[in-house]
Design brief:
Radius of gyration: 21 Å
Oligomer: single chain
Strand content: under 5%
Number of helices: 2
Helix content: 55-70%
Structural class: mainly alpha
Shape: flat
Length: about 110
């Protein structure tokens, strides 16, 4: 018996391959609900962490777009199009989130403090 590679080390003999369809189930449209799960997780993080999460996501996106722009990406699939406009939008969101953090903390102090 050969040792499993890293991609299959976590699988048991009965674990189906990822993103595969079960032939015993009626055919569904080509929707993989993974995006819905990801969106729900992001929304949950945003609900719990409020503007802190928004600031973290905005800064992560700014770093990603800045790196992509340096690598030559001038137009994004984002509706805003031009990567400079996208970065400006994300910067504005980050500034607003940073400004909202003290108010959010004060709200939680009031809620938890009674």
């Amino acid at each position: 018996m050969t040792a499993p590679d890293d991609r299959t080390a976590h699988l048991t003999p009965n674990t189906p391959p990822l993103a595969q369809r079960d032939p015993g189930v009626a055919d569904a449209p080509g929707l993989d609900p993974l995006r819905l799960c990801v969106n729900t997780t992001v929304a949950l993080i945003a609900c719990v962490l409020g503007p802190v999460a928004l600031l973290a996501f905005a800064l992560t996106a700014i770093a990603g777009y800045a790196r992509a722009r340096r690598a030559g990406l001038m137009r994004s699939k984002c509706r805003l199009g031009d990567t400079r406009v996208v970065i400006a939008y994300l910067a504005a969101v980050a500034v607003l989130a940073a400004a909202a953090i003290p108010f959010w903390v004060a709200l939680w102090i009031r809620v938890l403090g009674g």
